[in-house]
Amino acid sequence: xxxxxxxxPGGPETLAITDLPSPTPGEGELLVxxxxxxxxxxxxxxxxxxxxxxxxxxxxxxxxxxxxxxGVGKGVSDWQVGxxxxxxxxxxGLAEEIVIPARSAFRLPEGRSFTDGAxxxxxxxxxxxxxxxxxxxQAGQTLLVLxxxxxxxxxxxxxxxxxxxxxxxxxxxxxxxxxxRDAGADAAIVYPRGPFDRDGQKALAEQFKAAxxxxxxxxxxxxxxxxxxxxxxxxxxxxxxxxxxxFPAGIPKLPLNLTLLKSCDVCGVFWGAFAMRDPAANQxxxxxxxxxxxxxxxxxxVSATYPLERAGEAIAAxxxxxxxxxxxxxx
Length: 331
What we know:
The protein is built from eleven helices and 15 strands. By secondary structure, the protein is an alpha/beta fold. The strands form three sheets. Strands 3, 4, 5, 6, 7, 14 and 15 form a seven-stranded mixed β-sheet that branches. α11 (311-319) links the parallel β14 and β15. The protein is globular and about 60 Å long. The relative contact order is 0.15.
C-alpha cells in the first residue's frame, strides 16, 4: 500500500510517498481501506513535532478518515467487511490502509459520501463538545466565533444556530465573511491580520464589542488564539464562557483581572481527551450530529479535494490559514 510519510520534523516538503506492506488488525481492531482523509490544523503541527501527540517516525499524518472495513480482528463482532465508517485515529490517515480500534469507529450514514464523512467528525464533535458541555450555550444567547470560516469555526456557527443562539462570526476576509453568513451567522465582521500592538488590540476589542452589543457575548469560541484572544475576552458578557479551542496564531497570555471584572470562565476544550474519558457522552454527541445532518442543520463544507500525491499541498494551505471549511484528500 502507499502512504505519505513524515520521516523528519519539518513542513510538507519533508513528506514522501512510500510503499509499505499492508497492516494486520489485532484483537479489537479493524483494517480499513481509507477512501478519504480530511486535513486539519493538527496535521500542520504533528509533522513539525509541535503537537501534543508525537508518534514515532516514520508515520503518516492524517487524523480524520472515512473508509470501508477490509479486515476484522479477533473479538470484533459488530463490524463486517464492507461496512463504511468514519473515525479520528489522530494520525496515519494519509495511507491507503490503516488499522484502528473498532471502538473508535462510527458508521458512515447511508447516502453520505466518503469525502463528506471524512470532513464531519473532528470539527463538529469538537464544536458540539465545546458549545454544549463547556460553553453551556442556550437559545437566545450571543455566540462570538473567531476564525469562523475554518472547519471548526463553520461547525460552531452552524451548531450555534441549531441551538437557537445569535451568532456573530469574526473572520479575516470578506470571502470568509460570506462563507460564515452562508452557514447561518447573523452577522460577520472582518478583522485585520495580527500581530497587533496595544493600540491595535484596543481597536480590535472595540470592534468585537460593537459587534456583540452592549451586553457582551455569552460564549466566545476561540480556535485562533494569539493577539486576538485578549480583545475577544474584553467583549465577553457578565458570567460569560470563553472557550479555548486552538492556537494557530500563537498561545496567548490573558490578563486574569478581566475574568474577575466580568465574573467569567475561561474553559479549555480538548475533545480528544473527552472522547477517551467519556465515550458514551461522545457517542451521544455523534448521534446528535447525525440527526442534525439529516435535518439539514449542519453540512460539512469541503472547499477542495486532493489526491494522495498532493496531500502536502493541502497541509501547506492549512498552514497558511487561508482555508475556508475543510480540505479532503481522496484515495
